[in-house]
Amino acid sequence: MNSTTATQLSHGMQYQLQIYFAGMQQIKPQLPVAYEALEQKARGVMKPEAFAYIAGGAGAETTMQNNIAAFNKWQIIPRMLGDVTGRSMDVELFGTKLPSPVLLGPVGVLSIAHPEAEIAVARAARTLHVPQVVSTVSSKTIEEIAEAHGDHPHWFQLYWGSDNDFTRSVINRAEKAGYGAIVVTLDTRIFAWRERDIQNAYLPFLFGEGLGNYFSDPVFLKAVGDPAKDKMKTMMHFAHCFSNAGSTWEDLAVIRDSTRLPIILKGIQHPDDAKKAIDHGADGIIVSNHGGRQLDGAVASLDTLDSIATAVGDKTTILFDSGIRRGADVFKAMALGAKAVLIARPYAYGLALAGEQGVKEVVGNLLADTDLTLGLAGCNSWAEVTKERLIRVN
Ligand SMILES: Cc1cc2nc3c(=O)[nH]c(=O)nc-3n(C[C@H](O)[C@H](O)[C@H](O)COP(=O)(O)O)c2cc1C
Ligand SMILES: O=C(O)C(=O)c1ccccc1
């Protein structure tokens, strides 16, 4: 057995000590530990339509539900009596070493959850050494959020709409502000049928939330003038810059030619699209169905991961999201071929409930749970976490 000092303890072991300590003093965590209870608590403090916007999905929300259910079809087979005291959750992504395979995925309009929005998220992310992927429709600007990160890794998520000048402008701003990669979301070229939001007549960006990067962009401002003057014109131009149902694989050259940063395509669900991503110059992909918020009736995101990893796992970097809630979920996605995972709704609820501290607590819990899962399964590193560690049960 290795002897370790307190500073060398893994996330999970540090956490376990904290839990013993808290238990001895009867100190409960500030937020619910279980995801389901966290969501219910957030429901209790948020404006109903803002909660519905975050919690909801497209259509009947079957894909959103199936994203969660898909994890139960795979189960972990633990191995006994290996020494896992020295285990590590380290990963390397696009040349950057990270202490865990968890990233905070892009979530737009975070001001509907908390006034400090992405700044609070950035501070929590930095404390935990977890990268943040910042949305084009963030409530704070690209530059403000970058400042909160300093030299801590942060990536920019691009909504690639119909205005190439706007696209180049925001990529340029992100590059200048020190973002380390451009994540291009492909599954939201058309905004989906979301029943809760239609019922509530609630699309937050139409009320000006999440438009910080548009209202601070010289190309956008040149087109609309004063955004407050003619709101209809401003919104129509936002729609133009946000969406594009006509873009093709060949058009990706616009983005490839605009930046030297790694380009990661988000929303891949088919092995042939993963191959196309590589052929068109992408450096990585995110297997994702946008948390079931776009195409309802679509396959659960986890159910597409295995075939995509089999097809291109040795040729590109595969990340995964949609339904990661606990350490076991991280383990299963990693075993099926992901190099890292993203979470979205869990940290948005942490933010809504307790700002920076809430994000820190929710993400810290996931890191501890993941580390303990790795050790309990009998693994020392992600290299040992392969498909052979799982069994498909139905
Ligand atoms: C409120 C909300 C806003 C989102 N905004 C964006 C966005 O701006 N850009 C993007 O690429 N994905 C966005 N997503 C999708 C997430 O990045 C992620 O793909 C999805 O929520 C799956 O993760 P989850 O199951 O952990 O929520 C958003 C998700 C939510 C819940
Ligand atoms: O709600 C979303 O899923 C999303 O991607 C989005 C798009 C535009 C504004 C805010 C969020």
From TrEMBL:
Annotated ranges, domain FMN hydroxy acid dehydrogenase: 27-394
Gene3D superfamilies: Aldolase class I
Keywords: Oxidoreductase
Cofactor: FMN
Similarity comment: Belongs to the FMN-dependent alpha-hydroxy acid dehydrogenase family.
Name of the protein: Lactate 2-monooxygenase
Originating organism: Danxiaibacter flavus
